[in-house]
Structures are given as structure tokens and as C-alpha cells.
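pasting for the record
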Amino acid sequence: MTGVVDGTAPVTGDHGASRTSEITDVHAHLLMPGLHAEVERRVPDEVQAAADLELTRNGLASLQASGRMIGERFPRLTDVRARLEAMDAQGVDRQWVSPSPNHFYPWANEGLATWVTGEVNRLIADHVAQAPDRLVGLGVVPMQHPHLAVDALDDAVLGRGLAGVEISSFAGDVELSDERLEPFWARAAELRAVVFLHPFGCSLDERLDRFYLSNTVGQPTENAVALSHVIFAGVLDRHPGLRLVAAHGGGYLPTAIGRSDRAWKVRPEARGCAHAPSTYLSRIWFDTVVHDERALRWLVEAAGADRVLLGSDFPFDMGLDEPVAFVRGAGLSDAEVTGILGANAAELLRTRVHA
């Protein structure tokens, strides 16, 4: 490995600026309409099939509302200046910028997936390079083709200088417990790269096609399922250095972890991990997009304050409009607030491998 920070120096940004006091939002997105237009030009039938699935999963009313919302927020999703202005208004010093999850394209064949991954990583790198003192980038890997994931991760971290990658909760027949992902997990741990778990779509499909259940129920469900695959399969036992960050506060899992512990205790098929599932919450990082101060306090209690990171889901309507105020108003200690608002994120990146 090259360019490794040894972990003993003061926490510094890529260009030497201190990050110990920076307020950092780890959950913010970039929309790449030109990329999607090119994917549609190349494989129109596949794009239409994916759109049909989205209609099944979300329902027409939700898709129409989402379209209006994205149109209204388009500058913040695409333009660096609009992003920085919004960050200033929120009191956020730094963002980790990851692709809008619609750019996962989990149905893409090997050739298209390879091209898409490279383009996404390039576009993310170009975006954050416009404000390198304030933006950190996360790329993607083609999860549906596990044998391509290591090369894509290397491209993101070593080729593009990104801090890690964003992944979905599943891709096709690939769950996060899939043995074919072992080289990816090992390489991510070796590079000390962030792996940001952010679902796109819920496999419950049309059961959630009204009332925006596809998001309110689907996202936390997918987070809980994906993290359970990681935990019960022993991924964190085999790769203790993995830096896995879960969006949406980990979904339902932290508040229902006692049921997982019970299964681990009484069911032989649930003993794929070395310890009770609840012990692994302190090996995962979680963002603050939980929308409820009580849920945030429980997350801190369940995982530890040092494992919670400020997140907003910027700039989507299901995010936190005032993420900093949300954390400060949750009744946590000053030390816990300081860590969540930025110190924990800085520590997480402190020893990462640079390109």
C-alpha cells in the first residue's frame, strides 16, 4: 500500500487543514444526469425495465412526488456552488459525497457495469475536486459482479483518491453475506476504506407501493437485512478492520437487536458469527438520519457515541433539514455531540490510504 497515514499524526485534511473541529456530514449525494442519459442510450430496454420495477416498488404517486422534489432540488444535487451554499446555511464544514443510489445500476451486465463504475468514480472525483477542502468523495463498485469489486474499489481509492465506496443492501442474487464478496471485504479493510451501506429499493416490492412505504419502511428494512447478513455471516469476525458505515441509523436493527441475540443463542443455524449480534454494533458506524431524538439516543447507547456520525441525506426531502441542530437537541452530552458532529468522522478517515 502507498500513501498510508501512520495514525500518529494530528488529524489533518487532504490539504493540511485541521479537521478536529470540522462539522462533517457523511451522508450527501450527487446526481449525474449525463451519466444516466448515456446508460439509457446504450441499453434503453434495460433502463425501461428498471423504471417499471421502480413503478412497482414505489407506486405512481410516489414517483411523481419524487420527480417534483428532485426537480426543485436539482442544483444542490449537481452544482458545487449550490451545495456549498446549502452547507454553509446548515453550518456544515465538510460533506462526504456519494452517488445518488439510482446510479448503482444493479442489473447492468459486466461490460456496462465496468464502464458505469469507472464513470461514477470519475464524476464523483471531479465534483469533490472543485472544493477539496470541504468535500470528500465515495465511489461505487458493481456488487452484482463480485469478481469485479476489488478492481473497482482500487479504482475509487487508489485511482481517483476517494475515501471509499457506497454499496447497496443487495444486488441481484448477491447478498452481503455472499462468499464471493470476501476479496472485496478484505481489500476494503486493507485500504482502510469507508464502505457506506445505502439501500436502493426494497425487495418487498409492491407491498410497499403506497403511502411512501417504499422509503419509510423499505429503507430501514433493507438496512436491517443487509447488516444482519454481514453480522451473522461472520464478515466482521474475518475482517475486523472493516469500516462499514450504515445509512439511516442502521434501520430497524439497533432497536431490535435483542431478537437477533436470542436467535444466536437458541438457533444453531444463526451461529455463523463468533459472538452475540449485539456486540457487533460497536464495530459498525451509523449515521444520524433517524428523525427522532429518542432513536438517536438509543443508537448512541446501543453502538457507542464514537460509532455515530452526523448525516443528513442531503439534499433529499427524507433527510434532515437541520442536521446539526437535530444532534444538538437530542439531549446528549457535550463530548458525545462533539464526536458525532465531526470528530468521529475525522478519526474514521485519519489512517485511510491515499492515492
